[in-house]
Amino acid sequence: DQQVKQNSPSLSVQEGRISILNCDYTNSMFDYFLWYKKYPAEGPTFLISISSIKDKNEDGRFTVFLNKSAKHLSLHIVPSQPGDSAVYFCAASASNQGGKLIFGQGTELSVKP
Amino acid sequence: DTAVSQTPKYLVTQMGNDKSIKCEQNLGHDTMYWYKQDSKKFLKIMFSYNNKELIINETVPNRFSPKSPDKAHLNLHINSLELGDSAVYFCASSQVALYSTDTQYFGPGTRLTVL
Question: Can you say how many angstroms the Cα of residue B24 is from the centroid of all Cα atoms in its chain?
Fold first, then answer.
């Protein structure tokens, strides 16, 4: 039962362009959503998050959008840089679950110079 | 001065053996977690401890036993290893377990291969 899904296993973007990574969820109890970035042979590192009371959160080149009615969130990276090439994981949690994160399966982003 | 560290980074062992993976965090966090990333790349939570107390215990075989000697350490012991235990195991920590908004910081992972 996959509660968090990232349907695109990979994405290739030209440097300087926008990267859009998508994530869908099924559990309406989720109230906090996060994006993690992972390089090979390293652990995931926190990138940006959004609470369910918001529909947008921005941090520099990274913006996360949340559409609660569609149970969909997306991560926008503008402009994309080669150093952004990594696997991006979407994760969700519910406030009554003791910090338990449910992860999607990841999208591998490749930013080409 | 790594925030969350795990040892060993790689572990290759035979079926039936017992092994341990150690995790330490120097962030002063109260909560620590173990996640398993399987061959399909899914990251799934296994356990979490808050101040040495078990908070989350997902459907994990009894062969897996977490041990938290203090709030800075959460070790994972695995008995009678099976082929299906081969995966990458990640330790993580966060300030508080009770609130979903607390960011979790991950260690570099331990790649376990069972032959």
Answer: 10
